[in-house]
Amino acid sequence: MLDRSDVTAQPLREDGRLPLVVRPVRDDLEAGPFLRANRAAIDHLLLQHGAILFRGFSIDSVERFEVVIQALTNEALAYEYRSTPREKLGGATYTASEYPAMHTIPMHCENAYQRDWPTKLLFACARAPRTGGQTPLADMVAVMSRISPDCFDSFRTKGVAYLRNYHDGLDLSWRNVFQTESREEVGAICRRLEIDFEWVDDGERLRTRQLAQGVARHHALDQTIFFNQAHLFHVTSLGRETADALIETFGLEDLPRHACFGDGSEIPSAQLAEIRAAFEAEKVHFDWQQGDVLLVDNMQVAHGREPFTGDRLILASLCDAYSKCR
Asked: TauD/TfdA-like domain: from which residue to which, for each copy (predicted)?
């Protein structure tokens, strides 16, 4: 248990379990020593609540955030085989996904499109937005309760195949995704991560396909979690009009991103709508305050991002890997 002479701890909402909000009760409480001394209790609370918001510890710089990362995790992950634009700021610290401020980032579990993923996520608010910009959370058990057994079973038995085509000027380039200028290194990374790849159009364009899980067993709980990003990668995540235009231009095989079941069959639109509605219904919001740190169990809890105004800067770190490729 946390020492209540140091902090208070209670859920953000009386009717919910996440996030648990931990606040210092005295001004001289230093984050690093406190977190290191209470690591076991914090890990236990994370399994109970799924997410913990540390508020009032003034973690608003890369240097202070690195202290928190080292105190609360065993291993920081490099962000490879990227899905979103990020900047590395030093050590284990990246910016959170840098999509334009007017866009919503849909709810997801980090790297669930891969066979490698972090079990812990850490975020820190270096600069709070003027409006919006929340990082909504969703309890995956509650999300799964809204997904029909037929839909869940389809993903459990078939898995998900993620297709990516790296067209010039569309989405992320292969150089960004794989963080290299070398085609040979791309091949080595793909083989290590069990990603099928080929260079098409006379070797000018990279195409990748990875078969990954539809559901996964939680690393510490006796529980199977709906764990994939099919609803993000599927072309319809861009809206029907944009999806139709991309399909007309490229066809399904050459889309910049797409997802289907692992056996190659298309995911029914009704199931995708069901999944998106389940995530939307379970969103829990809080407004970022400068210096906040959010610790997330990446399998129990999904996250996203709301549109914002102002100069928002959220730091991020992906930690403590689970891998099916090691």
From this structure: 32-314
Residues of the chain with CATH 3.60.130.10: 7-100+118-137+286-298+312-321, 147-279
Average pLDDT over the chain reads 95
Range list of β-strands (E), 91-195: 93-95, 105-108, 116-127, 131-132, 137-139, 160-165
Q: Which residue has the higher pLDDT, 48 or 3?
A: 48
Residue 111 has pLDDT above 60, yes or no: yes
Cα–Cα distance, 161 to 257 (Å, whole number)? 11
Mean per-residue pLDDT, 319-325? 82
Residues with Cβ within 8 Å of 190's Cβ and at least 6 positions away in sequence, in order, are 196, 197, 208
144, 152 contact by CB (below 8 A):
yes
Strand 196-200 versus strand 137-139 pairing type: unpaired
The predicted model scores a pTM of 0.95
The pLDDT-based confidence of 326 (bands split at 50, 70, 90) is very low
Task: Please report, for residues 45, 135, 182, 326, the alpha-carbon distance to residue 208 in angstroms, rounded to integers and kept in the order given.
Answer: 39, 30, 16, 20
pLDDT at 197 over 60: yes
Pick the CATH number of 147-279 from 3.40.30.10, 3.60.130.10, 3.40.50.1820, 3.40.50.150: 3.60.130.10
Buried b / exposed e over 270-300, threshold 16 CB at 10 Å, is ebbebbbebbeebbbebebeebbbbbbbbbb
- Choice among 15-19, 131-135, 152-156 with the minimum mean pLDDT: 15-19
Any residues with CB less than 8 A from the CB of 30 and at least 6 apart, and which? none
What does the alpha-carbon distance between residue 84 and residue 125 come to, in Å, rounded to a whole number? 19
Residues forming a β-bridge with 131: 309
Are 124 and 203 in contact by the 8 Å Cβ rule? The answer is no
For the ranges 49-58, 60-69, 83-92, 114-123, the lowest mean pLDDT is seen at: 83-92
